[in-house]
Amino acid sequence: MRKIILAGIGIVLIVASILGAKTIIDNKHKPKPVKEKVVKTVITDTVLNSDVKIVVPANGSLTAKQRLEIYAEVQGIFKTGNKLFKPGQEYRAGEPLIRIDASEYYASVQSAKSELYNSIAAIMPDLRLDFPDVFQKWQNYLSSFDLSKTTPKLPEMTSDKENYFITGRGIVTSYYSVKNLEQRLAKYTISAPFTGILTEALVTEGSLIRSGQKLGEFINPSIYEMEVAISKTYASLLKVGESVVLNDLDNTETYTGKISRINGSIDATTQTITAYIEVKDSALKEGMYLEAKLDAKTETNAYEMDRNLLQDGNQVFVVKNNVLELINVTPVYFSDAKVVIKGIPNNTVVLKKSVPGAYSGMRVKYAKSLDTAE
């Protein structure tokens, strides 16, 4: 009897185990939860077409508008002057930059001037007898003749006889020979043509200077020019005298210049035209790199937006009933970061900030501010 009871209990336990296992297996097949679709938050702007000023950026380095490359036309020893011939040295207009020793050449000039004086003095008795009416003016010329000064111009000849007489004695030839020597003598001193500063010095005092040798560079530091290349599209829009805003590379300083010249030809390789911007400021230095912003033209009934919002095929995303749609537009000008476009109706809601993975038909919602955008 006891065995029968134990066997029954065992059978009951086995059946209960099978039913429990079946229940557990059936409960594992629960339906997967439906994932809620995420609606992206976007930053938008309402289009109001207006006049958009197109500013063309250009850059370049400054060069002095007045520049003098100093070359020697004569040979000699560089004499020490009142100022050292060194970069950074300032000179006033007319002040000597370089003096070359001309003592030997000066002696030959004086000798030629003395010969001219003697030639004129030798004909004075003949002039007194044969040309008494012109004797006095030649006498006055001799009286004003000073060997230490520049040779004065010969008296004007009033008759053919006087001209033949003076020319026949070789006086005119001697005069122009002396003037030629004096012109060359003046080249032993190189003076500053304008007030400026020495930027390069290739010789030092006491060195031997040879004819044709470059001695240095001299500039006027008060006025500079910047050469910029502009697309030929805007060639007809640039005008001489227009103001231009200039910035340094750090955008910390702003200067105002004006277009001083525009090249008359277009570069065949780059299809650009060269413009020259004149700028004056005591803080500027030659070689500084600046960026210019040229007012090219004003585009009417246009809208400006970030360049990365323009899609392939000249399309932009608009928001209609919280759904993104693509519309065709006409871009009229591209800058580094912006694009000016036409063809968007007023009051159209467009994206102000790009949305990763955006597509036509995508549902979105508006953000109250940039900080709330996902």
UniProtKB/TrEMBL annotation:
UniProt domain Multidrug resistance protein MdtA-like barrel-sandwich hybrid: residue ranges: 69-215
Signal peptide: none
Pfam families from the UniProt entry: BSH_RND
One GO cellular component term noted in the UniProt record for this chain: efflux pump complex
A molecular function GO annotation: efflux transmembrane transporter activity
Protein name: RND transporter
